[in-house]
Amino acid sequence: MVEKIEFFIPSTNGHNRLHTIMWKSDCPTLAILQISHGMIEHIERYDDFANYLAEKGILVVGNDHLGHGKSVTSHDEFGYFNASDSSKTVVDDLHQLTTLIKSKYPGIPYFLLGHSMGSFMARRYIMTYGNELDGAIIMGTGQQPALALKAGKLLVHLISLFKPMTYRSKLIEQACFGTYNNRFKPRRTKSDWLSQDTAVVDAYIQDPFCDFTFTLNGYLTLFNTLSFIRRTQNIKQIPKSLPIFMVAGKEDPVGNFGKMVRKVYNHYKKIGIQDISLKLYENDRHELLNELDKKQVYADLYTWLKKHISS
Q1: 3-state secondary structure (DSSP) of residue 180
Q2: Dist. CA 105–CA 90, nearest whole Å
Q3: For 273-287, what is each residue's pLDDT tens digit?
Q4: What CA–CA distance (Å, rounded) separates 162 from 99?
Q5: Backbone angles phi, psi at 176, to 5 degrees
Q6: CA–CA distance, 261 with 280 (Å, rounded to integer)
């Protein structure tokens, strides 16, 4: 039987509390998987996957990032990361949870999974705290050209001359996500790019915790994170012995349909990561854990984890 425990931890920003969920079964804990969720979603959406792993003896834990899920106290806080160096703060929050869980379960193999924006945060995490992990799963990731990121930051700066950092810009939203649905015809909703499973897409659209536009602060956090993780000097900080598993859908626009995922994978191999593997799933879109073949994805991730628990 899986027990689902909800609690709050303080954010490293010194102000907010972070909603956290832990999934634990009554069988012996073989390993721990911490999840870093994506943009405009929340940790509760990983419930099915977490239950699957917990039943196999893998404790799963994750927090709602700043500006997401039940870590917000009012609708105005959605999409706003309340910190001066917000990209670093989100990663430090993840690390704080790691430290807490490790103190309760010392000596247990510890892994991190990051999806989408959460994969960007996970990539920054392994550049900073990678030696504290036994492995990392990078899911639904991507990479943006340096010029595009500079343009994005400039646009945020220009708008911020006239609007506060809490302003929600439809212009930036369109620039970031406007083309994501173009590949999928006939277009049914604006979120078709998330999954082939229409029930998943509809549930996402109807979820009040997934219904907001990022603030200027939110987009700047995203752009700063993407800038940080693409720099070779930062990538070189990843421990060479850290096992990494990159997974994405071949029809995922965030990774430019596999191209940018492979580019990141090749870059990591080039700098000397010793145990790194890549799997691209045919026909799958952005949310692998919510795709039509999700049970296969679950099984693949469990197989990888099990292999690296024993090693």
Answers
A1: coil
A2: 23
A3: 999 999 999 999 999
A4: 41
A5: -80, -40
A6: 9
Q: What is the pLDDT of residues 119-153, one digit of tens each?
A: 999 999 999 999 999 999 999 999 999 999 999 99
Largest Cα separation within the chain, whole Å, is 56
Query: What order of strands is seen across the sheet that includes strand 58-63?
Result: 2-10, 17-25, 58-63, 31-36, 110-115, 135-139, 244-249, 276-281
Domains and CATH numbers, the chain: 2-310 (3.40.50.1820)
Q: Is the pLDDT of residue 310 over 80?
A: no
311: confidence class by pLDDT, cuts 50, 70, 90: low
At how many degrees (to 10) do helices 117-129 and 86-104 cross? Answer: 70
Quote the crossing angle between the two packed helices 170-177 and 216-230, to the nearest 10°.
40
Under the phi-then-psi rule, with left for phi > 0, alpha for psi from -120 to 50, and beta for the rest, what region is 14? left
Average confidence score pLDDT of the chain: 97
3-state SS, residue 215:
strand
pLDDT tens for each residue of 287-308 = 999 999 999 999 999 999 999 9
